[in-house]
Amino acid sequence: MNFKYSFLAILIVICSFLSCTKAQVEPEIDPNRKGEITLNFDNIAGTKDLKLGENYTNAAGEQFNLDMFQYYISNIKLKTEDCREYVVPQDESYFLVKEEDTKSQLITLKNVPEGNYNSVTFTIGVDSLRNTMDVSKRTGVLDIGNAGMAKGMYWSWNSGYIFVKAEGISSQAPAGPDGQRKFRYHIGGFGGYSSKTINNIKTKTLDLGRDRAKVRQGKNPEVHIIVDVLKMFSGATNISFATHPTVMFSPFSVNIAANYVNMFEYHHVHNEQ
Q1: What distance in Å separates the CA atoms of residue 107 and residue 224, rounded to the nearest whole number?
Q2: Which of 206, 217, 232, 265 is 20 to 30 A distant from 72 in Cα terms?
Q3: Model confidence at 71, in pLDDT bands (50, 70, 90)?
Q4: pLDDT category, 107, cuts 50, 70, 90?
């Protein structure tokens, strides 16, 4: 009798396990079906949320605050756990992220094939091909017209986009003619058109680890990426506002670009249930 009841109890446990397992089986992925995915670029300063006008301290021990922080993200690629790669059509793959504009920090990619994506790759800046295209091919955030979205992010004298721009105030920076102690970092350079010049184009791949961004028809997962502005001023080269208050198209800009590629880190993903 005891054996009979024990057998029934084991059978019930097995059936319950199989039932739960069956309930958790996801519908088959169909790459012909399309969904969306959002990349959320969350700007921070160390352990704090970045806020323009708020005081922070760089690796050189200098206090500062920012009144501008923005950067280009382009040429986005997504890769699935089974190594399928989705390349966002290039004409749709240029974005300007601004700290002052929260909407710009959410990049939603449409018509993405269904899949479990575990890495994202992007360019920090604007590739050389697009830098040198006719202006008619540079629209949206690349529009360099007087009222264009790229105003202030393009060197007309140097014919190239500024990839990352940070401006602010530090008491350690030398005083300018107006008495303000400003620092300005306008970092760009795509390698040159007719002759070789500075190339600060950087590519970043973020691995989601064990996580998966589950793109499905009608669902939109959100990949949370943190961008630590303090890492722009630290790394292989610690940047001092006192020594280098203004860096634009100069050899030293290479050091800052080598730093800021490490600003970007994967944090977590939200999958719609």
Answers
A1: 11
A2: 217
A3: very high
A4: very high
Provide the 10 A C-beta neighbour count for residue 260.
27
Per-residue pLDDT band at 157 (split at 50, 70, 90): confident
Over the stretch 171-206, which tens digit does the pLDDT of each residue have? 999 999 999 999 999 999 999 877 889 999 999 999
Closest CA to 107 of 151, 152, 82, 71: 71
3-class DSSP state of 136: helix
Strand (E) or helix (H) holding 22? helix 2-23
In sequence order, which ranges of 66-224 are alpha helices (DSSP H)?
A: 128-131
What six digits make up the tokens of 131? Answer: 């830098």
First to last CA, the chain: 45
Burial bucket for residue 256 (CB in 10 Å: 0-12, 13-18, 19+)? buried
63 and 171 Cβ atoms separated by less than 8 Å:
yes
Of the two residues 2 and 194, the one the predictor is more confident about is 194
| CA separation for the pair 221, 108 (Å, rounded) | 10
In which element (H, E) is residue 134 found? none
Secondary structure letter of residue 56 according to DSSP: E
Whole-angstrom distance, CA of residue 86 vs CA of residue 113: 8
Tokens of 204: 């970043």
In 3-state terms, what secondary structure has residue 66?
strand
Pairing of strands 34-45, 222-228: parallel
d(CA 105, CA 263): 15
